[in-house]
Design brief:
There is one protein chain. The chain is of the alpha/beta class. Helices cover 41% and strands 18% of the residues. The strands form three sheets. Strands 4-3-5-9-6 form a five-stranded mixed sheet. Helix 1 crosses helix 3 and helix 2 packs across helix 3. The model has no long low-confidence stretch (mean pLDDT 91).
């Protein structure tokens, strides 16, 4: 069945507003034109779509069935056309990111970035914080540290203090930091983290014999499965806290650095990189 697009648009707007005058104002036509479109559509369908009431309109059963279908279709058309409004050519942006930040912060917001910067084709490579921008062909890299990497420009994204985290069953047995002496203390490749954390807590550091991990992601998963207690950047594991897979038994946090967006100073930034950097800085500034 061939149905005029203008008639479908007039019906969808009228069904949304349940008012012909407001529908006409939205479509920039007269109320008479909207009314005529709807009558033509009802004639073609052989079904009434509205019930005319003294103070407005009400959808019939047929109108109620048609309205959400058309609303979805017009929304999809609008979204597709918006992609054509940005005339910039699509650019590939290759980003290296420490896996903890990629999974804990970036991936949940990836759809927002794609909507904000549709001309960027993102290529995301994860790492364990050891990265070679030039050797790996990266446009930029998100790293954990103090921001001082030779030959790079670094933009601070957020602080990421470390706190003791573990499975809830283990957390229930911990009353003071000294109780950690009786638990396996899982370690990252940064060997002094636990001694610094215990110093901040004012407690002697016990002998640390837990397993060593090269990634906070695997470190967190080991802690969630009950293998021991880990020092983790809490901001990257809020979902695990909310889901009850991890617990934070003590409020004490150890400042050891933050996440930074880095690029080589010797390579001019592309439009795609500038767009990504601007989006990252805005999003992280919002907390």
């Amino acid at each position: 069945m061939h149905l005029p697009l203008n008639a479908l648009r007039a019906f969808e707007a009228s069904a949304r507003h349940l008012n012909l005058t407001r529908a006409a104002q939205e479509l920039n036509v007269t109320q008479t034109a909207v009314s005529q479109h709807i009558r033509n559509l009802e004639d073609r369908l052989g079904q009434p779509l509205f019930r005319r009431l003294p103070r407005g309109l009400a959808l019939t059963d047929e109108g109620q069935a048609l309205q959400p279908v058309l609303a979805d279709a017009f929304a999809r058309i609008a979204a597709a056309l918006e992609r054509f409004s940005d005339q910039r050519p699509r650019e590939v942006l290759t980003v290296g990111a420490v896996g903890t930040f990629a999974v804990g912060w970036l991936l949940p917001r990836l759809r927002d970035f794609q909507a904000a910067c549709p001309f960027v084709d993102l290529r995301l490579l994860t790492n364990n914080n050891r990265v070679d921008l030039a050797g790996e062909g990266l446009d930029c890299a998100i790293r954990f540290g103090d921001g001082a990497w030779h030959g790079t420009e670094a933009n601070r994204l957020m602080e990421a203090p470390l706190s003791a985290m573990c499975a809830p069953a283990i957390a229930a047995r911990l009353r003071t930091p000294a109780d950690l002496a009786h638990q396996p203390l899982l370690r990252s490749y940064r060997a002094d983290e636990w001694s610094s954390w215990f110093a901040a807590a004012g407690v002697p550091c016990p002998l640390v014999r837990g397993a060593v991990f090269d990634s906070s992601l695997t470190l967190a998963e080991a802690a969630a499965q009950g293998a021991g207690v880990a020092l983790l950047p809490v901001r990257m594991f809020t979902r695990e806290l909310q889901q009850g897979r991890l617990a934070q038994p003590f409020a004490l946090e150890l400042a050891r650095g933050g996440y930074w967006l880095t690029r080589l100073k010797s390579r001019p930034p592309t439009a795609a990189l500038e767009a990504f950097r601007g989006w990252l800085l805005r999003e992280t500034a919002q907390g």
